[in-house]
Each structure stands twice: as structure tokens, then as C-alpha cells.
Amino acid sequence: MRYLTAGESHGPQLTTIIEGLPSLLPITAEKINHDLKRRQGGHGRGRRMQIETDTVEIVAGVRHGQTLGSPVALVVTNDDWKHWTKIMGAEPLAEDVNPEDIKRQISRPRPGHADLVGGMKYGHRDLRNVLERSSARETTVRVAVGSVAKALLNELGISIVAHVTEIVGIKADTSLLEGKSADEIRTIVEADPCYCVDPEASAKMVEAIDEAKNAGDSIGGVVEVIVEGMPAGVGSYVHYDRKLDSKLAAAMLSINAFKGVEFGIGFEMARRKGSEVHDEIIWSEEEGYTRATNRLGGLEGGMSTGMPIVVRGVMKPIPTLYKPLQSVDIETKEPFKASVERSDSCAVPAASVVAEHVIAWEIANAILEQFHSDQLPQLKAQIDEHRRYTKGF
């Protein structure tokens, strides 16, 4: 599978085209919209989420609720476009209009954002041409794409859920996850303002987010994605670019403001001995091969083990600050405070939703690379046969 996205933060719409989905996959706008709404939620979101109500329109590739096998096209309209038609319009400016008179031009890049380097790369003196596309607004349609991928995974008996494990040093008690399925975790997370499984930690996170907002600052954190029901042996050890953990790491780091990724117990492995890291292999007639622990996060040698895949990503604080850091005006070269755009004091809860969906896409794509099928029933049959094979290997 593959997809492309197009659209600017304040443009008329965000668009994506997905190619390679099997036919006969049930897809509805209602399910996608549920995930889009979750992306807009979470404590710490800014005014943009009050202006936009993201809903998807399926404009190609689906008929009567099922995919056709042809490319699927999705569109999310930007409700705020009506206020930006002159500023972001596609048509050339009239001859009597001075480009310098256009409102909201930006010449003061924000530290930590793509503004300055992007302007250098593409030759833009108005840095709005950079921030409009580098904005996390683009993750809207990536969530829509991931929602379609989740629909496929659900048909294959694979569940995925994300939650917030840490915000500005406040850590959730992850032992609360023990014994809970992905669906049970989702029920807890969707009812929590910070998308966290620990209500005590969540309450402290809310306080920290409010403090940051009042101070004109921003804070980051850590999100975790859990994938259950994954067949063993997806991915490969034979080439670097076929390793599943490599693809998942790249997906996590492709999210705006994400700067680190780990699997299982992650960087804690550096502080332990091998006997305290690797997962002992066990077998039973009921379950086949499993592991006594899951410290490696469901991945060995670039392949899924059949245990839950556990991947975490760290999100830095958002670089747009209401008490902006010092920058340099690219026109005058004079020091100034950086430009201020509408922003969130903390987008970690929302980012957990994005993480869930980019990981869902990579999992679904890896499965379709390994189990070729143009039709969903054939794919399900292949997966069922593979599970029987690995269980009795």
C-alpha cells in the first residue's frame, strides 16, 4: 500500500489518496470521523480545535460501504478557509496588488520549527509558505488513513490502542495495563482528558498543562502504542529495509515534534544484563509459541514474535510559544521575538492518536507486503492459515 497527502494548514482542504487496499473491506465515514474527533481532543488543545470540526468525505474507491480495490480518496475540508481565501488563494495576485501588502506574512522564524531551514531550502522569503505545510494540521488526513488501516486490521483480528504514559515528567502507573485488552484500555483512555490509564497521574498532567498555558509555555511527553493479535513472522531479518521495527520507528519519528522512539523496555535495556532483557520462549498446545515476558516489545530480529507490539515515542514541547523565544528577522537581520501562530500548550494526548494511526498503517502495510491478496476474504484465509502454521511449527 501507499498514500500521499496534500494540503496546507489554512488551505481549502486536506486530501489523501490510498492505493493498494484489498477489495470488499468495510469502510464508513462515521468510523473515520470518530478517530478524527479524538485527534482534536485531549486537554491542552488550542483555539484551532474550536474553529475546525474535522469530518471526512470519501470521494473515490468505496461503494456502498466497501472498498472496490481501486484507489480510495479522502477529503477533509478546512472550515476556517473562508477567513484565508485572499491570503492562501491559489490564483496569481492581480497586477495592482503589492505582495508586501498581503496580511500575515512571516519573516521571523520560530526556534524549533521548520520555518527558517524550510525557507532556505525552497527559497521562500515569506515563511508562511513553509509553516502552512510543515504544520501538524497535516496529521489530520494521516489519522484518516490510519483509521482505514485499522478497519483492515480489525478484520484480521488485530487490535491497536495508544495512550499517554508521561507529560513533563509526570508518569502514569503502567502496571494498571496488566490483564487489560486493547479494547478495555481504549475504553479507559477515551474517557480521560489526557488519554491516560492512570487517573491520579492524569489529574496532575491537567494541572501541569494549565500551568504551562498560563505561563505562555508548552510541554511535551511520551505516548505508547500497543498492537495485539499480531501474527508471528511479519517483517524480515534479511535486509535492513524490511525490518518491521525499523519501519515502525520511522513512522513514529515522522510525526511532527517527535524526537525519540523505543520498543518494549527500550532504553532501560542499556541498564540491565542480558538475562534481564531477553524474553524466554515457551510453548503450549493452546497458544503455541509465546514469551514468558515481553521486554523486547513483540519484536525480534526485525520480525513480529506474536506477542503484543509495544512502541513508545517522545514528543518535544511545541515550538510556538505565547512567550516567544528570540529569533532573527530574515529581512532586517535584527533580533526579534519569534512569530506567534495559534497553538496548543500541550498536544501530547492528541499526538497519541496520531501515533496510533501511523503505527496502524505500517502494521497493515507490512501484512499486505507479506500476504498478497486483492480481496479481503482471501487475505483473511491466508492469515488464518499462517497462524495455524506458526502455532504448530
From TrEMBL:
<comment type="similarity">
    <text>Belongs to the chorismate synthase family.</text>
</comment>
<feature type="binding site">
    <location>
        <begin position="256"/>
        <end position="257"/>
    </location>
    <ligand>
        <name>FMN</name>
    </ligand>
</feature>
<keyword id="KW-0057">Aromatic amino acid biosynthesis</keyword>
<dbReference type="InterPro" id="IPR035904">
    <property type="entry name" value="Chorismate_synth_AroC_sf"/>
</dbReference>
<keyword id="KW-0288">FMN</keyword>
<keyword id="KW-0456">Lyase</keyword>
<feature type="binding site">
    <location>
        <begin position="316"/>
        <end position="320"/>
    </location>
    <ligand>
        <name>FMN</name>
    </ligand>
</feature>
<feature type="binding site">
    <location>
        <position position="342"/>
    </location>
    <ligand>
        <name>FMN</name>
    </ligand>
</feature>
<keyword id="KW-0274">FAD</keyword>
<feature type="binding site">
    <location>
        <begin position="133"/>
        <end position="135"/>
    </location>
    <ligand>
        <name>FMN</name>
    </ligand>
</feature>
<feature type="binding site">
    <location>
        <position position="45"/>
    </location>
    <ligand>
        <name>NADP(+)</name>
    </ligand>
</feature>
<protein>
    <recommendedName>
        <fullName>Chorismate synthase</fullName>
        <ecNumber>4.2.3.5</ecNumber>
    </recommendedName>
</protein>
<keyword id="KW-0285">Flavoprotein</keyword>
<keyword id="KW-0028">Amino-acid biosynthesis</keyword>
<feature type="binding site">
    <location>
        <position position="39"/>
    </location>
    <ligand>
        <name>NADP(+)</name>
    </ligand>
</feature>
<comment type="pathway">
    <text>Metabolic intermediate biosynthesis; chorismate biosynthesis; chorismate from D-erythrose 4-phosphate and phosphoenolpyruvate: step 7/7.</text>
</comment>
<dbReference type="GO" id="GO:0004107">
    <property type="term" value="F:chorismate synthase activity"/>
</dbReference>
<dbReference type="InterPro" id="IPR000453">
    <property type="entry name" value="Chorismate_synth"/>
</dbReference>
<dbReference type="Pfam" id="PF01264">
    <property type="entry name" value="Chorismate_synt"/>
</dbReference>
<comment type="function">
    <text>This reaction introduces a second double bond into the aromatic ring system.</text>
</comment>
<keyword id="KW-0521">NADP</keyword>
<feature type="binding site">
    <location>
        <position position="301"/>
    </location>
    <ligand>
        <name>FMN</name>
    </ligand>
</feature>
<comment type="subunit">
    <text>Homotetramer.</text>
</comment>
<dbReference type="InterPro" id="IPR020541">
    <property type="entry name" value="Chorismate_synthase_CS"/>
</dbReference>
